[in-house]
Design goal:
By secondary structure, the chain is α/β, with parallel strands linked by helices. The chain has 15 helices and 29 strands. The chain has two domains: 4-333, ANL, N-terminal domain (Rossmann fold); 453-541, 2-Layer Sandwich (GMP Synthetase, Chain A, domain 3), CATH 3.30.300.
């Protein structure tokens, strides 16, 4: 096969993900491989850097050798919390090369979420950074690791690390010693997991085990469908803690030999500048960002290079523009992340609803692209809508070679590809559109800036504020963020709660910033059902 994507997949064992980088380091050692965000230094992360494939592969060797020298063994887990800088993807690849399972933590997490995540995965080591964008990540990790007996090492990627954190600067220096002796590293990691990502906050969500072969096949499906090659430049604004970042960018980059430019989420002006200055041929962003790029004429400015565009949709939120905009004059691929269970990219067809996904088999896997990546099914009951048409409302079930399962959950006697997995995702099948399903948001689901939040979790968190007698979280639609988080509160008679005081209270508890509400709404009571559950729709209708 002459297709670079297929050739790379054949040359590199798809279950041994680090071999793909090794492939390009041999066949195109001096080709540009990866570049930092241009504003990295402004965020406190050191100088921005660009690497060739040979340089990137040598650094991966040194990291993998360092992990091995520190006594980390194949099959053990390593937690990674890093920004979108070159060290993050190379640390993930180095973990694969050393036979380790990377458990990738979102950069937005703080100590509350990290405590729960460390307890869930019990990693042997942690890789983090010092100060970045005003947050002391190494200090947070050091404090959290004290409570987790499995952790032997906390490793930092820069010099500015506190006591108790080992800097990796000697491993990553240009003057470092030769690349690792591969005989000292794991020889066969093909049966190990590719990564652990998270379906939601670790307090209420699940740690999802992504298989190595599943990641490779999903990445191959993306790269083949997008027709990527070594001539392409990918601009990635998505963190590698998500399947969108891993299977939608990291693996297509490794498979195609393209150049990957990183963007630290999210700065519109910096992103628009990278789109033009880096000669980007493919990127993926939410629909509101595409609309903003069109209004500012940035897509037209980058048009001489930009060849295709991914539109990433929040689960169940197919937001429409406030005013009708013309479609960009280039192919668009609609991308849906099924709560880290699977990732789907479909070329947009004229007149097709972007939030309707096909029931049954969805193809695109394997070197020839003919195998089904996943199969979908809906389990539920039939009801009637306002027009008296039949609807099947229920839960989405999935199976196939790219499907991830919750960490620790048995795959069943027939194996992953034969056993349907219940996702917990609500969906609807209309009688008139029986070949497709659409997502149905649960009353407690909040999707804020690409992050899934449980309203019940926020209820419990907000109730700890001493000025509230009762409180409930709910969401309102936002054209950019998907949802905005609002707190309906019943204050104590003697209290006058303010939003600033409440946010300061939550920040002191070291919770992720996306859990902070955008607004407080004072109410006389929180409507509840007889079982005590909050009636969120009634709160919203009363505004």
């Amino acid at each position: 096969m002459s297709d670079p994507v297929s050739q790379a997949l054949l040359d590199a064992n798809p279950a041994k993900l680090d071999a793909m980088l090794d492939h390009w380091a041999r066949v195109a050692p001096n080709a540009p491989a990866i570049a930092d965000p241009l504003n990295r230094e402004d965020l406190g992360g050191g100088m921005a850097r660009s690497l060739t494939f040979a340089e990137a592969n040598a650094l991966v060797d040194r990291l993998a050798q360092g992990f091995s020298d520190h006594g980390l063994r194949a099959g053990e887990k390593i937690a990674i919390q890093l920004p979108n800088v070159w060290e993050c993807p190379l640390t993930i690849i180095a973990a694969w090369r050393a036979g380790l399972v990377p458990c990738i933590f979102p950069l937005l997490w703080r100590k509350q979420e990290i405590d729960a995540a460390l307890a869930a995965v019990a990693p042997r080591a942690i890789v983090t950074t010092g100060q970045f964008a005003g947050v002391s990540y190494a200090e947070i990790m050091r404090e959290a690791a004290v409570q987790q007996m499995s952790v032997r090492y906390i490793l930092g990627i820069d010099f500015n690390t506190p006591d108790g954190v080992t800097p990796l600067t000697d491993w990553l220096a240009n003057e470092a010693g030769p690349a690792a002796d591969r005989d000292d590293l794991a020889e066969d990691t093909g049966t190990l997991a590719g990564a652990v990502t998270w379906s939601a906050s670790p307090l209420k969500g699940k740690a999802m085990l992504q298989s190595a072969s599943g990641l490779a096949q999903c990445g191959h499906a993306f790269a083949s469908q997008l027709h990527l090659s070594g001539q392409d430049v990918l601009l990635n604004p998505y963190p590698f803690s998500t399947l969108t970042g891993l299977a939608g960018f990291l693996l297509p980059w490794l498979l195609s030999g393209a150049r990957m430019v990183l963007h630290q989420p999210f700065d519109f002006e910096a992103f628009a500048g990278q789109l033009s200055s880096e000669n980007v041929t493919y990127t993926a962003v939410p629909a509101p960002v595409i609309e903003a790029l069109m209004r500012s004429d940035q897509i037209a400015t980058a048009g001489q290079h930009l060849a295709r565009l991914g539109c990433v949709w929040p689960l169940g939120l197919a937001m429409q523009p406030e005013t009708e905009l013309p479609e960009p004059a280039l192919p668009i691929y609609d991308i849906h992340n099924l709560e880290e269970h699977a990732l789907i990219a479909r070329p947009r067809q004229s007149g097709e609803k972007v939030n309707d996904l096909p029931l049954g088999k969805i193809g695109g896997c394997g070197p020839d692209g003919q195998d089904a990546c996943l199969e979908t099914r809906v389990r539920g009951s039939v009801s009637h809508d306002a027009s008296d048409a039949n609807q099947l409302q229920g839960e989405l079930l999935v199976r196939g070679p790219t499907i991830a399962r919750p960490l620790g959950e048995s795959s069943g006697s027939n194996g992953d590809e034969q056993q349907f997995l219940a996702t917990g995702i609500g969906c609807v099948v209309d009688e008139a559109n029986g070949g497709y399903f659409s997502f149905r948001l649960g009353e407690d689901d909040i999707h804020h800036g690409g992050v899934t939040i449980s309203a019940r979790e926020l209820d419990q968190l907000y109730a700890e504020f001493p000025d509230f007698l009762d409180v409930a979280a709910f969401a309102i639609d936002d054209p950019v963020m998907g949802h905005r988080v609002i707190a309906a509160v019943v204050p104590r008679p003697e209290a006058s709660p303010s939003l600033n005081a409440f946010k300061e209270f939550l920040s002191e508890k070291q919770v992720a910033p996306y859990k902070l509400p955008d607004q407080l709404v004072i109410t006389q009571m929180i409507p509840r059902r007889p079982d005590g559950e909050v009636e969120r729709a009634q709160i919203l209708s009363g505004l």
